[in-house]
Amino acid sequence: MKIFAKEFGKAFIFKKIRPDLKRFFMKAGYDDVPYELFGYLFYMTLVITFFVHMIFIYPRVQSYSSLTIVLVTFLSWVIIPLTILSLIIVYLYFDLTIKIFKRTKEIETILPEYLQVVSSNLKGGLSFERSLWNAINPEFSIVAKEIAIVSKKVMTGNDLTEALLEFTEKYDSPLLKRSFGLIIGEVESGGQIAFIVDKVIENIRKTRILKEEMAASTLTYMIFIGAIVILIAPGLFALSFHLLNIMSGFSAQVSLNAAQSLPVNLGGGSLNLNDYRTFSILSLLIIAFFSSILISVIQTGDVRGGLKYIPAFMISSLFFYFLFTIALGGIFGGIV
């Protein structure tokens, strides 16, 4: 079953995009593309489409003509699977993007310790190539795995510098590219590699300390943004909802002549409270989305770091919105 699902899933992936897809999954820590996953997704969408069509669509069109039934059935079996697959693919893309970002940050964190061992090996008289291999240790996790891949490429006849450059290009990390770029340049020139490695280690640690200080200095702004998203904005929208409800109640009780004599029009048009509730919910979701991205940029300097905050901010914002709506409803309930 697994082999059939794998071949079936591979059939839906164009050969032209398979290399790029493989590189994308390898960045996330997978050794190969899980084609069987795509096969199982296809089976799952067929099952979901069948139940959705039979429960929600077919009972509503069975009284129409045969041509209409065939047309609606065809459209449902095209649109529903495509919608489900699109949503799943978008979710997988964001999930893998977050994993790649975490792996990149983990590599940047472990790299100084790994290079420290490489420097010790160089000072002990080993060549740069042997120093890299001997520094491979399970405690260096991702870095050790990537350097092991580099070593396999070198053993099969590839150039060491080319293999290292492929490793640096694999991740979107300026720190990783700069560090190994300096080391590779020194290897090619035949200079003092151990000295350059020590300087690279020193620069990475200074950069890390500087980033931590910057993140600490902006903590107040992140707390303020979080308070706006989770508490202040939901509270203001809930208060506005009840104020509109009160004004609508007053305008319904005031006669047309009395309402015209007032300096302010209490009617406020024909605003529907349900429409305003929908507007409030959508506004809070948009505010939560962009606020999580803004906090990520302030904290890590990268948008991808904020993807994990989006669900938490959205859920918290909507939770407090409905909580404030219920609480204020109890306070202003007797006015209307």
Topology diagram in text:
Elements: H1 2-11, H2 18-27, H3 35-61, H4 66-123, H5 128-134, H6 141-155, H7 160-170, H8 174-189, H9 193-217, H10 219-253, H11 256-261, H12 273-300, H13 309-332
Characterise the protein shown here.
The longest helix is centred in the N-terminal third of the chain and has 58 residues, at 66-123. The protein starts with a helix and ends with a helix. It is flat and about 90 Å long. The protein has helices spanning 2-11, 18-27, 35-61, 66-123, 128-134, 141-155, 160-170, 174-189, 193-217, 219-253, 256-261, 273-300, 309-332. With 336 residues, it is mainly alpha-helical. It contains 13 helices and no strands. 81% of the residues lie in helices and 0% in strands. It has three domains: 2-102, no CATH class; 106-210; 218-332.
Distinctive features:
336 residues, 13 helices
Low-confidence stretches: none
Distance between the termini: 64 Å
The backbone outline, from C-alpha atoms, is flat
Tell me the number of helical segments per DSSP (H or I, 4 or more residues long). 13
Q: Major sheet: size, sense and barrel closure?
A: none
Number of strands: 0
Beta-strand content = under 5%
Structural domain tally:
3
Query: What value does the average pLDDT take?
Result: 82
As a whole number of angstroms, the C-alpha radius of gyration is 30 Å
- The helix/strand order is HHHHHHHHHHHHH
Report the helical percentage: over 70%
Structural category is mainly alpha
